[in-house]
Amino acid sequence: MKENRRHRLTAAVFAAIFxxxxxxxxxxSSQTQTEGAxxxxxxxxxxxxxxxxxxxxxxxxxEREGAEAEGDAAKDGEAASETARKLIKTVDLTVExxxxxxxxxxxxxxxxxxxxxxxxxxxxxxSQASGYRSRSASLKVRVPSDRLDEFVEEVAERTNVxxxxxxxxxxxxxxxxLESHKKALYAEQESLLSMLxxxxxxxxxxxxxxQLTDVRYQIESMESQLRTYDNQIDYSTVYLNVDExxxxxxxxxxxxxxxxxxxxxxxxxxxxxxxxxxxIELIIAIPLLVTAAVALGICIGIVFLAIRAGEKSAAARxxxxxxxxxxxxxxxxxxxxxxxx
Length: 341
Hints:
Shape: elongated
Oligomer: single chain
């Protein structure tokens, strides 16, 4: 049954093609009548089949579109599988060293030799005012992804690694999607340019230019994102945190004696450093101590002079009061003598 329907559909398509060719070429009336009869016969055959030919044609079209969609999906899958994986690698390293300056110099030199660069460098040299002089550094190092392991291993050999973390982000799908979208935008840009050449009115030209501006902006944005991805993929990131120490602490203790000896030596060193820091800070503070002593002496002198002045003033007032009382007594005695006489 299906084969009969296919034959009928084929006959109808051929009849329609013959009619179009005859009309375009201006064929004879006899040929037109013959082809018209053939077309009518095909239509009659279709009508006899209950009009299912159109349904079959529609179903065939849907099947073909579905097959094409599956083929496109398969092609996309093959393209994604053939595309190299786009991986962004990041490493966090926390290390300690007793050769702080030498390590930073070596990291800078090796980074350049490997073809990378230092994106950020923060170095803390300690604070003498607080007595804490241990130094530290925080570096953001970018090295080629194929030399990442080599760089990390070299740093680990020269230091004591206290923490190490690695992260890998797969951005293959995002990268392929951006590239596909960019190609579509370039095709749209070519179409708009072709339309611009054929445009005649000012309104059309302005509208097409506005669309061109938007498309070009999207293209630039996607190219910028792709360049960012390329940089992150080609150059892995190493966050390197360095702490300066005086001596490496052993990873494993062999016994209680080693632990006691290590702790005793460490505490002796701390006591010695504390005494040394005290005298250093004392010597540094001598100018401040002298200034404070002079200021204190001046204040004491002012207070002493003020007290002396107060005492003298009180003595003078007391003397004047005694003289007044003596004078009053003499006057009183003289008055009494006159009265008795």
